[in-house]
Amino acid sequence: MLIWVIILLCLIPAGMADAQTGPWYGAESAGPAFFFNRGTTCFNQGDYRQSIQEFSQALRLNPGYVSALTYRGNAYYMLGDYELARADFTEAARLNTIAAETFYNRGVRCFEAGDYTQALAEFAGALQHNPRFALAFNGRGLAYLQKGEYDWAVREFTEALRLNPAQAEFLYNRGVAYYRKGDYDRASADYHEAARLNGAWTAAQADGAFSRGNAAFYAGDYDSAIAEYAEAIRLNPGKAEFWHNRGLGYIQKADYNRAVADFSEVIRLNPAQAEAFNNRGFAYRLKGEYDRAIMDATEAIRLNPRYGLAFFNRGYSYHLKGDYARATADYTEALRAKTPNDSITLNNRGNAYFDMGDLNRAIMDY
User: Fold this and answer.
1) pLDDT tens across 349-366, in order?
2) Model pTM?
3) 39: which of 51, 214, 303, 365 fits an S-S bond (Cβ 3.0–4.6 Å)?
């Protein structure tokens, strides 16, 4: 063919040289598929450079032509141009992902509208673009489930699980299919495993919300911190530290009643946590309920006899009640325990001595 092309081009009369301005074979009217087909022919014949030109022309006309990108990537790879090959493969994968998600979303809409046959077709389209799209297999399983085709539903859910074994939703759905088939043992096994995985996943989500809450707290964004702690509590209400840190957030917002409530829940979950008693006592002190503050600080000290902050908080409450002797004694214990607040403790003890009329000791502490 190449020899004949050359001969034909050479035999065009000189006077007609300008008469044919477009590419040979009338390609000026050809679409991207025309150049793609020529490219695949060249590729199969081993002419990778020419195939790249053809695929590039197809992509010029249709930049989203995934097959042309894939073939051109293969041609670059065969020529050893791995960077260009990788670029084409990456773009093809990106476009395939977009297409797969488009089909998947259409499938979801069809499913919600009750058109299960069309939903199956859309999910199949998603899988053509991304054969590892576990959600599309799950979608097909749900459509088959609604159509009463339980064997097919089990097959689809099983494939979804093969791609994502830790997805509790897929296990639960397969359990439903087994149950409707009358296979109760397998249904029960799937339900139990789904519950186990769902618990682990929920715990991980709760821990993530807790970490985000801590980051917001340290950044001074207490509203966001409280919201994140609330989400962590919703997902895993049995974890004492979630309640504890939200209580600290409420203290920062001067919402002492809610702080007391959260620290009380911590104490219910873990009655041996000295920090919760101390912090609840702190909230009581800020509310002006000094006797309750003293009781909580005393319990914190019982649980941890070297708890300097608890001595400080109890001393401060005694001080505010006018019991200066007990206040100075507790401040002294706090100083022995070495807390980060030693300078504040000395200042407060100086104030207590001053209020007692012991000016010399006050001056020494100041």
Assistant:
1) 999 999 999 999 999 999
2) 0.54
3) 51
